[in-house]
Amino acid sequence: MREYLNETAECLRKVRSKLKDYELNMNKVKANLGKAEYEITNESLQHLKLL
Questions:
Q1: How many whole angstroms separate alpha carbon 40 and alpha carbon 20?
Q2: Range of the structural domain that residue 35 is part of
Q3: Is 28 contained in some domain?
Q4: What is the pTM of this model?
Q5: What is the pLDDT of residue 36?
Q6: Which tens digits make up the pLDDT trace of 1-51?
Q7: Alpha-carbon distance 51 to 44, whole Å?
Q8: Residue 10, in any domain of the structure
Q9: Is residue 49 part of a domain?
Q10: Which pLDDT belongs to residue 51?
Q11: Which keywords describe this protein according to UniProt (predicted)?
Q12: Contacts for 30-39 with beta carbons within 8 Å, 24 or more apart?
């Protein structure tokens, strides 16, 4: 029984680690999307100024 609990605990640690990596990657994606949104908005304003 103890071995089963140890294996379960190890699997949960791995899942937690993968979720943390996923969270970090999603934060990077959100930051990149925010930057892209700003760039598009800025480019749109530049284009409007030229008209």
A1: 30
A2: 20-51
A3: yes
A4: 0.57
A5: 75
A6: 999 999 999 999 999 999 999 999 998 888 888 777 777 777 777 777 776
A7: 11
A8: no
A9: yes
A10: 61
A11: Coiled coil
A12: none
Residue 39 in domain: yes
Position 35 scores a pLDDT of 78
Token digits for 49?
């100024």
Start-end of H helices in 1-51: 2-50
Q: How far is Cα 18 from Cα 41, in angstroms, rounded to an integer?
A: 34
pLDDT for the residue 37: 72
User: CA–CA separation, 40 vs 45, rounded Å?
Assistant: 9
Exposure pattern of 17-50 as b/e (b: 16+ CB <10 Å)?
eeeeeeeeeeeeeeeeeeeeeeeeeeeeeeeeee
Tokens of 51: 């008209």
HSE value, Cβ hemisphere, 13 Å, CA-based, for 27: 6
